[in-house]
Design a protein that fits this description.
about 10% strand, STAS_dom_sf, RsbRD_N_dom, Globin-like, alpha/beta, phosphoprotein, Transcription Regulator spoIIAA, 10 helices, single chain, Bact_StressResp_Reg
Length: about 290
């Protein structure tokens, strides 16, 4: 049920005339649902902002939250939802901050005696329902965006490119290598090669639990991209189990150098650059 112009005026008048009582009760109801997770001062500020935006919308003749007169009200609701999502509140806790206005209005209008009281409350409730749904939808979008940003940050943290030696960088991979992560690995490696001018790159897969055809393709694409940048790649961390899997799957690494460990790969690169390295000591038999 859309608000008429007269109902909008009456809503603005009601909210203005009983501002202190209404906002106090509104804040009290919301505070009970949040259980002290937000300071009373901050909560009161948010309620007062919503209160002012709703008064302005009523005076401008808002009939529906989606119309042109609801722009400022939608902006306030969006800010509230986004902030609550970042602060770790649930969608329900955020929506209650809006729906609590309905209880506050009901208590206030019960004291009002008039022919239009019931009809007005139904219209006001419909508007508040729209506000609550808008808040919920905005909260969900904000939370999804936040989760996506955090996932991207974790992805970047899980694919570091480190400088091992002058002219030698390494990418120690840990965990599953999917398409999204492989793209990040390639981009970070290529950027590091450009920044450092390194002619050698070691891709260490010691921490990759299993190598299948898809993982191998991702690694090979990264090697090809690095070669196009003028860098040679060495793959390290080829454990016996992984070697058997690679052979069984018929995966060909071609002329790409492979080593059992990161230390072996670094020793190989240093020899290629003319740096003398100590010979590996044989293991003592116990």
């Amino acid at each position: 049920m859309a608000l008429s112009a007269e109902q909008g005026d009456r809503l603005a008048h009601l909210l203005t005339e009983h501002a202190e009582r209404l906002t106090s009760r509104w804040t009290e109801i919301v505070a009970g649902s949040l259980r002290g997770r937000l300071s009373r001062a901050e909560l009161a500020r948010q309620v007062q902002e919503l209160h002012r935006a709703l008064i302005d919308a009523g005076r401008q003749g808002v009939s529906d939250l989606a119309d042109e007169h609801g722009g400022e009200l939608r902006a306030v609701l969006s800010e509230l939802s986004t902030n609550r999502a970042r602060q770790g509140f649930s969608a329900t806790e955020t929506a209650i901050s809006v729906f609590a206005l309905k209880d506050s209005l009901l208590e206030l209008m019960e004291d009002e005696k008039g022919d239009n009281t019931l009809r007005d409350f139904v219209a006001y409730s419909a508007l508040i329902d729209q506000m609550g749904l808008f808040t919920f939808e905005t909260f969900v979008r904000a939370r999804e965006s936040l989760i996506a940003d955090q996932a991207e940050q974790l992805l970047e943290l899980s694919t570091p490119v480190v400088k091992l030696w002058e002219g030698v960088v390494a990418v120690p991979l840990v965990g599953t290598l999917d398409s999204a992560r492989a793209q990040v690995v390639m981009e970070r490696l290529l950027q590091t090669l450009v920044d450092t001018g390194s002619p050698y790159a070691i891709i260490d897969i010691t921490g990759v639990p299993a190598v299948d055809t898809q993982v191998a393709q991702h690694i090979l694409k990264t090697v090809v991209a690095a070669r196009l940048m003028g860098a040679d790649c060495i793959i390290s961390g080829i454990r016996p189990q992984i070697a058997q899997t690679i052979v069984a799957l018929g995966i060909e690494f071609g002329d790409i150098a492979t080593k059992a460990s990161l230390a072996d790969a670094l020793r190989h690169v240093l020899r290629m650059t003319g740096v003398e390295t100590p010979a590996r000591r044989p293991r003592r038999e116990s």
